[in-house]
Each structure stands twice: as structure tokens, then as C-alpha cells.
Fold:
Amino acid sequence: FLAASGAHIDQLFVEPDHQRAGIGSALLGEMLERRLRPATLQVFAENTPARVLYERFGFRQADAWWDTQDQALNLLYKLE
Structure:
């Protein structure tokens, strides 16, 4: 499941039983083929597998802040 608003990826979710099978890469690749730039998304700093995926597609950290609701460091990733 991928939900986006323009060039901002709001959610990217793959059922845990189906992760690491290329589904997230396929969804992200399809979205990025639309060439909407700059593409952005938010990810928790502790979500290393997601960050590795996004960085493989060229996303880089552009900002960081403490999310008081989730009590976690949240990162903004951007792809120019």
C-alpha cells in the first residue's frame, strides 16, 4: 500500500509476512516514475529497513524533529 499527495509519500506499508520480497521497491519505483519532484516522505529514525530502502532510491535526510505524540525522532527525507 502506498498513499501519496502530489510528490509527498504519506504512507508506504507492506504486510510483515510479505516484506523483503521487492513489493516496497516496486511501489516506490512506480510512484517515482511519475517524476514529481521534489519527492518527500517522513520516516522514524529507528526504522532502519525503511531508511535503507529510501536511500537506495536516492532519498536523503533533509530535516529531523522530535515527534512528541509518538515519542520518537522523525526524519524528513527528500529526493530532488
Notes: The chain is about 25% helix and 40% strand. The two ends are 23 Å apart (CA to CA).
